[in-house]
Amino acid sequence: MVTASSPVLVFDSGVGGLSVAAEIRRRLPGLPLHYLMDRAGFPYGNKDDATLIERVLKVCGDAVVQQQPRMLVVACNTASTLVLPALRAALDIPVIGVVPALKVAAQASPGGNIGLLATPATVNRSYTDNLVHEFAAGCHVRRMGSTELVQWAEDWVGLGREPAALFEHLDGWLMRPDPVSQVVLGCTHFPLLRPMLERLWPTVIWVDSGEAIARRVEQLLGNEIAVKGNTAVTLCWTGEQPPGEGVRRYVAAL
Ligand code: DGL
Asked: pLDDT tens digits for the chain (254 residues)?
C-alpha cells in the first residue's frame, strides 16, 4: 500500500541518475527518495541487449520487492531505450523512463545541426533511430557514443577530478564539418559535467531531460500524497563496494 513514507525509487548504473534526482529534489523537496546505483553492473553503455534486459529486470525487480516504492524512475537512457516495456509489464507500480530530448532540441533549432551525445548502446538503438525520424527529421543530427564521458562523470562526482581530455575528446565532433547549435545529452551522466561543457563551448546549448522527468513525477503523483518538509535521500547500491565518500557527500547535499 502506498503511504506518505513510500519512496520514489530512482535507478541508474552509477552516479548519472543523480542529475535526474537533483531535478526531482528541486521540484519536490519533501518527497522520500531512494537512489539505487547498480555498481555491480556498471557500466551499461557497452553491454549487449540481452544481458542488459536481464540485469535491469532483476535489479529493479528485487529493489521494488525490498523497498516497496510508489514509483520507479529509470534515470538511465541506456536502460530506458531498451527495457521499459518489459519493466512495465513486470512491475505493478508506475515506471518513468528517460530518453534523449531530441524533440526539444529540434523544436528550438528547426533545420539546424544537432548533436546527440550518449552511450554507444543508446546511439545505436533502433529506439533512437525512431526518435530522430519522428522528432528531428528536418535537422542534421550527428551522433557520438562515449564510454569515456561516463567514467569522467563518475570521477568528477566521486573524486572531484575534472576530465583533462574533455576538449580533445569532443571538439572535433562538435565543430566539424560545421558547429552544432545544440547537443542533446542522451546519457544522465553527462549533465553532471555541464559546468565544464559550458565553459569549454559557451556557444553550444546543452539539452537534457532531467527537468521534464521531474515534472512527470509530479504529474503522476497528483495529489495522491502530500509532499511536505524535507527528507534525506537514501542511497542504495549493488555489489560489495559501497560508493565512495564523494558520492555520499553529493547525495547528502541534494
Ligand atoms: N547513465 C546511463 C545513461 O543514461 C548509462 C551509463 C553507463 O552505465 O554506461 O545512459
From this structure: 777 778 999 999 999 999 999 999 999 988 999 999 999 999 999 999 999 999 999 999 999 999 999 999 999 999 999 999 999 999 999 999 999 999 999 999 999 999 999 999 999 999 999 999 999 999 999 999 999 999 999 999 999 999 999 999 999 999 999 999 999 999 999 999 999 999 999 999 999 999 999 999 999 998 765 556 668 899 999 999 999 999 999 999 99
Domain ranges of the chain: 8-98+211-252, 102-208
Catalytic residue among 60, 76, 139, 236: 76
Q: Is residue 60 among the annotated active site residues?
A: no
- CATH class of domain segment(s) 8-98+211-252: alpha beta
CA distances from 244 to 13, 76, 142, 154, 158 (A): 15, 21, 35, 11, 6
The verdict on the CB of residue 47 being under 6 Å from ligand 1 is no
Tell me, in angstroms, the distance from the centre of ligand 1 to residue 38's CA: 11
Question: How many other C-beta atoms are found inside a 10 Å radius of the C-beta of residue 49?
Answer: 11
